[in-house]
Input
Amino acid sequence: MKLARDTWLTFSYETGQLMHSPVNIAISLLQPVTYLLLFTPFLKSVMGASSYGGAYAIYTPLLFAAMGIFSGLFAGFALIAAISQGVIGRIRVTPLSRAGLLLGRELVFVVLTGFQAIVIAVVAYIFGLRVPPGNVLLALLLLAMMVLIGVSISFALAIFIPNQTALLNLTNGVTEPLALLAGVLIPLSVAPLWVRDVALWNPFAWGANGMRALFEGQIGPTVVWEAAVILAGLALVAVVVSSRLFNREIA
Amino acid sequence: MIEASGLRKSYRTRRRRKVTSVDAVRGVDFAVQRAEIFGFLGPNGAGKTTTLRMLATLISPDGGDATIAGVDLRRDPAEVRRHIGFVAQGSGTYDRSTARRDLIHQARMYGATKAAAKGLAEAAIKAFQLDDFADRRNGTYSGGQRRRLDVALGVIHSPEVIFLDEPTAGLDPQSRARMWREVRRLRDNGMTIFLTTHYLDEADALCDRISIIDAGLIVAEGTPSDLKREISGDVIIVDLAAPDTAGAPEPAVMLEGAKILAEQPYVHSCETIDTTLRLYVDSAATAIPQVMRALSNKGIEPGAIESRRPSLDDVFLAKTGRTLAD
Output
């Protein structure tokens, strides 16, 4: 009960900070929307999609996956900023639940990415995407878990590597291969077999595959459920481990 | 209200596989009474902030014990948090937030309902006179305004004990005086205040009692006037720089002057600080003519001589052999 209250308190305070600068939120939409509108036509000819609707069905889930990977794994910088501004220190002296302090912050990124994804989906619909909305909602669920995993990892890294430059280099070095191995840039179907084998170990690849299947209009294929189970399990582990680390290192 | 015994903390730093241990706090004891302003006076790096962070539950001590408001710090830090407030040295707020929003959030973190939190924030805005800017972005505040917000946040839940880390560092004289008034007001309302400072005048004028800490150890403790009384007599400061030049005197002249004066029977001790010699004597009135005579006999003409009552800096000098003022 206290955990839920404190998580909500942290979440609403932090989102309140974001809402105060709607311009920044609008700017954060600029990149994914331009990617969606400029990259999909390329994909249409390369992938041989029969229509724009088909091309959007291929690219939208990949864009979701990219957003999930990048917005999650770069979340640590916001934590470092909050630590260096003394905000975390001030909060840690209050009786606020430690897990709530972390979880509330993690959910901010989940909701923010979810909001961006919804905008992307709406734009894609306008330009010809035809997928049952229920499938998109399930894809959003997978996306939420991907972000949660990424944020937890990034927060844990930020605690151990409070140096911004070092963290930036590490994060860049990790996110690019993860995105590549999730088929975000080039679909994994054209990758050699061994690359696909490596990708089996990339949870974000499972997420991307699950979302692709959902955008192809399927809802029951095993890949979706496998992705959901793997991501949910991993998200749980990541959240618990990061909050343990957080408690030990800065509680 | 606060009792600490043998509190210590060391930090391990690893550089090129070599682990070195730095003893930040090497066992400190003190007791702080209810509704008193207790100051930790010491130079930077003396262990003031580390002690404060241990008491505020931010880091756990390596050894020793402390009781705050009747709660054992090591056994139940979560319970300690309900009784204390803490204001760190830097600011603890986002530039893009506002005072009102942060005050409400702070009160909510201590369990207040939304309505109660709004009331508490309003009361804090009145008490700390934040009205003019409470709904502006924190980033637009002056240093003194921001600091007042920090303290207002630290006491929003009316804690029994408030810890202030260098509450007036970097403030202009006017804002400092104002902060001192706020701190006294909190004490007069029954709050116990534990603050750190490296300002002599702050320790002297604001604190009811102080501990002088140096290199992780407490070297003196008492009321500022008691501590100064330990240094009996007067202090004479002899400036050997020529009056009409800004330049420093020759090192040889400094050495010679220090040697002569230290040999004088009426001088208890003589310390060299920059271009000046600091003499501890029983009576400045009778010592000054003798000092002038002794120096001019050796052909040394002092640029200026002044006398004053002992200050906390003299206490620090007597205890550590170094001076705090710089």
